[in-house]
Amino acid sequence: MPVNAPPPIGPVDSSAVPRFAGFATFARLPRLDEVTRADVVVAGAPFDAGVSYRPGARFGPAAVREASRLLRPYNPGLDVSPFATAQVADAGDIVLNPFDVGEAIGTLAERARELTADGTRLVTLGGDHTIALPLLRAAAARHGPVALLHFDAHLDTWDTYFGEPYTHGTPFRRAAEEGLLDTSALCHVGTRGPLYGRADLDEDERLGFGIVTSADVLRRGVDEIAGALRQRIGDRPLYISVDIDVLDPAHAPGTGTPEAGGMTSRELLEILRGLRDTTLIGADVVEVAPAYDHAEITSIAASHVAYELVSLLSLGARTR
Ligand SMILES: N=C(N)NCCCC(=O)O
Ligand SMILES: [Zn+2]
Ligand SMILES: [Zn+2]
Q1: Choosing a second label site near 27 at 20 to 30 A (CA), which of 64, 160, 208, 291?
Q2: How far is the CA of 243 from the centre of ligand 2 (A)?
Q3: Residue 2 — very low, low, confident or very high, per pLDDT cuts 50/70/90?
Q4: Of 183, 75, 50, whose CA–CA distance to 126 is shortest?
Q5: Which Pfam families does the entry mention (predicted)?
Q6: Which ligand does the CA of 154 lie closest to?
Q7: Quick check: pTM over 0.80?
Q8: Could you tell me if residue 138 is inside a domain?
Q9: Which domain holds residue 186?
Q10: Which residues are annotated binding-site positions for Mn(2+)?
């Protein structure tokens, strides 16, 4: 935050207006047009024309905002009050053509570039995983090739589906081909489940990715994993993409391509907290499909993941 800047406008006070009342911005934060500037913005990308199985992630941003009403202003896990440390605001939904994937990703890249043009950091709520490609285009346009931590059950480095290059199973192959990624600092975390063939892993490795499987998290534990990731990333500009299906279906049933044997929400949140000394520049939380959810299990988990990411970015805002 600039010196002499007015104190950030925080969330609506839950002791004055009950948290179940009023508009559902993320964490009841002000809208972007209600603040003069923002260190961090949360934006929705309601788009799911890139899915290979269950549709419905277009309703993810609204569900995550609703579930975020209960988030409180102090984060004990990172010892930070993110909304007091940084001006955080909700930029609303980015309007994307639901019938034209190519146009939608072009629009999203452009809008993400605009939102981050003055150094504002962006956390995007998806939407299906297709949206990570345009978000990485915007990130790389500003920072050069970025380090990437990709939390997901899936590799998402496949080539095409039905001949289509832009889908939710292919964003990271496209990003690598476009030179958006720093190939010395790429890692999937939480991968599991059946693949099409052994070649999937070979091709993924050729692109430069390391893999920490869901079983590795179980065996090695969150502190060791976070430490190894921190070392791999160093102080490179880091983008984090969280596909909520990285969580076990017990922790995130509301998603399009669920796979058994996943991480717990506790493990995911702890690994994210363990990344506090990295240089996070942007993030997304994708693949929340509320129609398959129960009791908001998935959207609550996603809102907490977004809260940790905003917290990490607020720590960075302190020093920018
Ligand atoms: N990005 C997500 N969630 N899923 C990709 C699954 C691709 C497939 O159907 O094989
Ligand atoms: Zn996935
Ligand atoms: Zn994915």
Answers
A1: 291
A2: 5
A3: low
A4: 50
A5: Arginase (PF00491)
A6: 2
A7: yes
A8: yes
A9: 26-319
A10: 129, 152, 154, 156, 243, 245
